[in-house]
Design goal:
This protein has about 260 residues and is of the alpha+beta class. Helices cover about 45% and strands about 15% of the residues.
Length: about 260
Amino acid sequence: MVAVIGIALIAMAEELGAEMALRSYSNLLRYGEPCIRRVVPLALAMLSASNPKLEIIDTLSKLSHDSDSEVAHNAIFAMGIVGSGTNNARLANMLRQLAQYYHKDANNLFMVRLAQGLVHLGKGTLTLSPYHSDRMLMSRVAVGGLLGVIVAFMDVNNLIIGKSHYLLYHLVSAIQPRMLVTFNEDLKPLPVPVRVGQAVDVVGQAGKPKTITGFQTHTTPVLLAHGERAELGTNEYTPLTPVMEGFVILRKNEDMEE
């Protein structure tokens, strides 16, 4: 059971590994023993925290109606982790339908309400993704928080539905803002235009290649979705950090001509 979670921990760092892990999990769901099937939804949540991919959502949606109650509990909770802080309309609709379907089952309904709260985490301004700084760095504290809750869900009936539901508070250590807010050097909010688009991997490319594609121009504060990157849309200010993410302090550009 722990090895199934281990696959997700190894593969979550990059896209290709995550896609290969999905294939392994589909085989485990098909041919695995009941105790293995119960852990697969949790592993999918770990693999794709705050990144609601269509294939993962569909797999979890099927498992949320499983005849094994523990598989259903874990799948519903995993839907919450996968969509946490994204306000994903498709997921929110699925969870509303599940709430109607399980309206007489208190345990499953508890899981649905928990997942709904996670999907709308901080009204869509927070995330559970442990990666930051353009996905180059991983927060060990955040992974530990996610892992603590996921291990607790391995025995969901005795721990989470039993008397140890407070273990869910471990998720707090993984919560971080996914918005970009800019300040001046006096730490006063400073609205500036920024370009937000899909991040492009430019490692090893010569010259000054474009780091984002398909961008739109917004004024800060802005929300950054999974895989998105922001860059300043004006030469009037220079950021004091190389990564435009979270809280950024801007300095007036002295070289700019009036």
